[in-house]
Amino acid sequence: MYQGVLEPLRGNAKSKVPWGSMALQTVYSQSFGGSRGNPGEAESIAQWLLGEHQALLAYARQQDKEYQTVDDAEFLRRAVGIVTSFSKQDGLIRTELSKVGIEGLTVGTPCIACKEMSV
Question: Residue 79 and residue 70: Cα distance in Å, rounded?
Fold first, then answer.
């Protein structure tokens, strides 16, 4: 899936993850020329990641010793990718992540995300 960069997982998880889930139901999106975006959804994604990144980091450091020596920002760049259907939403998410101090994540449509993640 996504040129072998993402591993699809099905069935029951091997272990419970300590961070919360995020479920959004899009009720409004705007048309931006040939693309679509939802500023509220982008903000929610950034706020969720800001709130959960310490739990993600603690879990990763417990599971993989390599992450024990990686700083928080580098960990997020390596471990978190956001795939969205629209290029405008990509930009909105990047903007909101930047507002909360999160930079350099792979964010994009499936084609863009695959290219960035495989580098």
Answer: 11
